[in-house]
Amino acid sequence: MSTKKPSPLRQLADLISASVDKIDAIFEEKGLEYPDLFTPIDPTSASEVAARDPGVLQAAAFAIAACSQLGAMLHAPAIALNQLALS
Fold first, then answer.
1. CA quadruple 10, 68, 18, 22: dihedral, nearest 10
2. Which whole number is the average pLDDT over 72-77?
3. Fewer CB in a 10 Å sphere around the end CB: N or C, the chain?
């Protein structure tokens, strides 16, 4: 009986999800919410300081890399070349 290995797309999606889970857990432990794009940046706020936590930075780096790779895999080559030519 063989177990089917998850597709590369699923593996990347799972890595993104696991990274977000790790970030959420760190922020939940601190009783904070991750900074969003709609709140002015205050580098001294507790949320911004927590966003620079080494565990958060590592999880964010994994999520960002996986998002980039997932986007590249899902993007049709002809469309990508067309967008690159027009930029």
1. 180
2. 86
3. N
Interval 50-70 mean pLDDT: 98
* Cβ neighbourhood burial of 79 (10 Å; 0-12, 13-18, 19+): exposed
> What predicted TM-score, i.e. pTM, was given to this entire model?
0.83
Cα–Cα dist 71/43, whole Å = 30
Residue with tokens 């049709």: 76
3-state secondary structure 27-38: HHHHCCCCCCCC
Q: Tell me: pLDDT of 1 over 80.
A: no
